[in-house]
Amino acid sequence: MAPQPPDQDSIQRMQDEQWLKHFLRNRERTTAKTSKPAEPHSRQTHPKVSVAHIRDTLYGAIQLVSKLSMACETLKHNMENESVWADSYAEAVSVKTDLQEKLKVLGDSEFVESLKKKLSSISKRRARLRRRQVEQDEDKQREEERVAEREAAIDKWRMKRIHEVEEKKRAQELKLAADTVLCEVRKKQADAKRMLDILRSLEKLRKLRKEAASRKGIFPEKEADQAFDGLVERLRALIRKRTGVYGAEENALRVMLETEQEEERRRDLEKRQKKERERLLLRKREMDSMLFGDEMPPDHPLQPFREYYTQAERSLPALIQIRREWDLCLVSVDHPDGTTVPQDWVLPQCPTDEIWATALDRGDCLGP
């Protein structure tokens, strides 16, 4: 049985496949010719570029990959449309060429290594800037805290001074008011005493007039004497009552003034005692500085030794133990080698020679 001749569709399909193979072969040759002159350029060393340029290159490569994917999709869906397929293929080849150029730049190991070093230096510089900014912020915060502490101390001192001035002013005003009231009370007491003297003078005058009238044979009525005596007694009782009130006011004012004076004396005594305590404390610090050296900071290497030798000041068991060790050295009073323990620190005296004095510090001895 002879083979059947191919139909029209089969012939057309074979022609299309041959044309496609021929077209692809020609495209490969064209691509090879256009890519050969670019090889010497690819072997050249890439110039130094900035990080911003590399970032733009990466973003451009991503966009080219996206375009190439879209071109491939277009080629897959337009296999039978020759004109669209040819345009899409040319665009895909162009995009691929651009993408290869960008990937050549990004694929250079030396270039990538230099880029890593540059990024590392940028990161270190930014870290230094951040640390510097943090240090500046901390310094600024510490300075603000110091300023706030100084301002708080100044405000506290100012408020204390204002309070002292106000207290002193109130005390002066109170004392002045008490003195004024006391003067008025004493004036009223003097007026009451003068009125009593006037009443006594009136009684004497009436008595003298009655005697003069009796010698003339004139005798006053008994009711008049009783009225006069009653009026004098009422006035005298009123004056005595007022005198008692004035006396009570005077005593109260005297007590108030004495209390204020006592309070003022007490404040003066406290101030003197405070100054004396400060002077003794300063003296003690000078003595401790001469005997044991200046006060050490908490992190000083010799601080543990100082704490060991001064543990009796903070611990009662340590004090008892040290006292027991001292008691082991006690001897009788008549022992030839026995000496009494000094009651105070044995301080260095001033040098008797001026030459020796030049070799000593001013704080190494006590004396005039």
UniProtKB/TrEMBL annotation:
Annotated Gene Ontology cellular component terms: U12-type spliceosomal complex
InterPro entries: Apoptosis_promoter (IPR052831), PDCD7 (IPR031974)
Superkingdom classification of source: Eukaryota
Positions of region (Disordered): 1-50, 126-146
One Pfam family this sequence matches: PDCD7
Protein name as it appears in the record: Programmed cell death protein 7
Composition skew (Basic and acidic residues), residue ranges: 14-42, 132-146
